[in-house]
Amino acid sequence: MDKQFTVGVFAALFAAFGFSLNFIVPFIIGDYTTFDFALVRHVVAALVGAMVLVSKKDILRHLTLRNWLATAGLAFIGYVGYFLTVTGAAIFSGPVVAPAFLGLVPIVLAIVGNRREGSLSWHLLILPLGLVLVGLLLVNGPAFTTESLRSDRSVWIGIMLALAAVALWVWFAIANQAALAVRPDMPLGIWSALILVAGGIQMLVLFPIGAVFGLFQLPTLGFGWSSASSLYLWGSSLSLIATVAGAWAWNVASRRLPVALAAQLIVSETAFGVIGGLVVHARWPTEIETAGVGVLVVGVVLAIRIFHREQGHPRQALPQAC
């Protein structure tokens, strides 16, 4: 298997693992809110990004205003905007319905990515995408019960916010890959650091606004170590794994893999998330959950095999979609 392809696959899987750690956040932050957690997480990530930039002063001097603006936009779309819509979806529709709709991300991203790039014949995508869809439906089936959809929450507002989150993440993935494609000499570490710094600054700007509306509990519960140590420790740990390492890994995958394949690899975030949730709740998976994760894994493995086979046997370039 081609080394670049292999590196891209493992990078996408690692990014999915890092992103999946977000599913355990509500169970480890105590009385603090997800907004508090996001603030700590993104500020720590921004500090790491700043250290990377400072250590590369020779490259930093050659960065253009366009680079800074591009990464600031990507940070807003993929970090702040995505976080706000996901959190809003969870608030309005609960912790089950919102993640279920976010499962649409790999399906939509694979379709949009393949339409843009023409990296694979559509008939070859049908089976892996179908398996991924079935796996997602099995894992998230409880979200679509009559009881869930008739809950007292403003569930339909949550669904709209979840769909907005799907759109933002797809936009981020496509825009990020396009930005890297026109900057082939841009070091991935520098690009990731720019996005992290921009995301941290934007979260700091959001903090006083959110505090006025009571979205943050830090001003009330206290910033001191005695009260917020768990928030700081978990926020810093997941920042390094999920945000810093995850962002870098996703950029590695974005440069080495077609969007249509990266999208199907990121679906493993759901499988990792289910496993993490089971560990937190200290229970075994149900038969449906086991089947869902199994089908997801089969779909991902099949996608990797198909893309690798096609990479080894290049076809005529597909015509551009109208």
Automatic annotation (TrEMBL):
- What is the top-level taxon of the source organism? Bacteria
Task: List the source organism.
Answer: Ensifer oleiphilus
Could you list the residue ranges that cross the membrane? Answer: 7-29, 35-55, 67-84, 90-112, 124-143, 155-176, 188-211, 231-250, 257-282, 288-307
Keywords (A to Z) from UniProt: Membrane, Transmembrane, Transmembrane helix
| InterPro entries (alphabetical) | EmrE-like (IPR037185)
Membrane listed as a keyword: yes
Q: Does the keyword Metal-binding apply?
A: no
UniProt protein name: EamA/RhaT family transporter
